[in-house]
Amino acid sequence: MSSRLARSAGLIGIATMASRILGVVREIVLAGLFGASATPAMDAYNVAFRVPNLVRDLFAEGAMTAAFVPTFTRTLNSRGREAAWRLGNLVINALLLVTGVIVILAIVFAEPITRAIASADLVGDVLRALGITARAAAPQGFASVPGKLELTTALTRVMMPFLTTVAVAVAVMGMLNALHRFFLPALSPAMFNVATIVCAFVLVPIMPMVGLPEIAAIAIATVLGGIGQIAIQWPALRKEGFRYQPILSFRDPDVREILRLMGPGTLGLAAVQINVLVNTSLATTEPQGAVSWLQYAFRLMYLPIGLFGVSIATAALPDLSRHAADADRSAMRKTISAGLRLMLMLNVPATIGLIVLAQPIIELLLQYGRFTSHDTAATAAALMFYSPGLIGYSAVKIASPSFYSLGDSRTPATVSILSILMNLVLNVILVRWMGYRGLALGTAIAALFNASTLLYLLNRRLDGLDGEQVAIAFVKILAASVVMGIVAHFFSVWITDAVPGPQWYWRALRVSGAIAASVLALMVSARLLAIAEFNDAMARVTSRLVRR
Description:
Helix content is 81%, strand content 0%. By secondary structure, it is mainly α. The protein folds into 2 domains: 2-465, no CATH class; 466-548, no CATH class. Helix 2 (41-60) packs antiparallel against helix 13, helix 4 (81-108) packs antiparallel against helix 8 and helix 13 packs parallel to helix 18. The longest helix is centred in the middle third of the chain and has 38 residues, at 329-366. The two termini are 25 Å apart.
């Protein structure tokens, strides 16, 4: 089981890696063109994109997949492909209708939505209603910059149709995943990054000629990227036998089951994104650039989540759904335990690596054009405080779908509400002491709380999750990762003194050298500590190389 899960997760990881690497390239391009604190453009774009991006993350890596895949898999196994295709059409058309209405309403009410997210006054009113005195908005806060709210509102209107395109794309993704077709669905988010990169070079120079701000090109690219996610997957689904039909019924039992799971299920997986939304709103009370510093840091931190957390959860979900349908709790425990241990092996070293190497990594990736050394230091600080939550984010990707496979969407929803409240309280307190850095730390703590609570309840629900085995693996992995972090720190200091040049290739040499030294230290430590997950992964890689 663990071998099959690792193979599926590896396949998804390859596709996801391509998408995430393109995502990093996207951030590099945007940082060079628009910077962070130099102009209001990126702050405006990031706030405007927060609402459609929130729904994208919930659909693409959350409630839609968790609710749809088990139901579609059950229909496929029990009643055959024709019934499954009918369910797929019903879901796609329901999404077109519901998200279409949401898009229209959001376009009409874009101004109050924007003000709700970006108004420092509104944030202060909400906090005062909770009996909390917020820190006064900075002189260069979001609302004080002339034209910034108006630009954000216009960008919001342009990007709202992204909701509909991504909803359909994820329905297609769910069907392909249920058929154990993982590669193309995992690769599809890359279309969003490709569209942004292309439009950055092609449309940005054209925008001033037609009387539009340059950042409008990136808003247009967002919608084109959503269309691209559908286009890359549709031929594979047709090859499996799917044909679109304009049918709609909210009374269908399977559709109602999906909606029943998605209602509280959306909230159950929403904690991370709602917390980021809270951060965005609170960050608008900070100096110009704070919204973008947090966004750049979160995107870089989310790279290992996409590679490891999402890929493992996506690979495990069809198996969890099948085991739950068969009432085989022993198999569920083994699948979840294997997923958790594999997640720890990948994410604990990634967490420590991001903390230790935050400054040189961001300097290498983003410090070009309008992105200054001040922006680098600020973004690195945010990344360091976001990173401890990496394990929590990834564990939630495994734990929440496990409850949905058991037909329980209320538990993740309840825990999510508690974590959102914790995040709000922590962030309000920490932002007064630490500024925008406190927002990153509060979000990380809330993510760890969310994950640990879900795993505790899941452990009780399944009469255990091989807790002793998971705990032993965690201690060993943590010890090996600490050794890796120490080596990374001292090697980074040494190579920075030895190679002081500011050019990008010297930066690349410093970062790659530090990463190589830290990976070598991790390998040696993992071998000495006999970490089974690491040894199994290395054995599979070695055997493949020998066969080739």
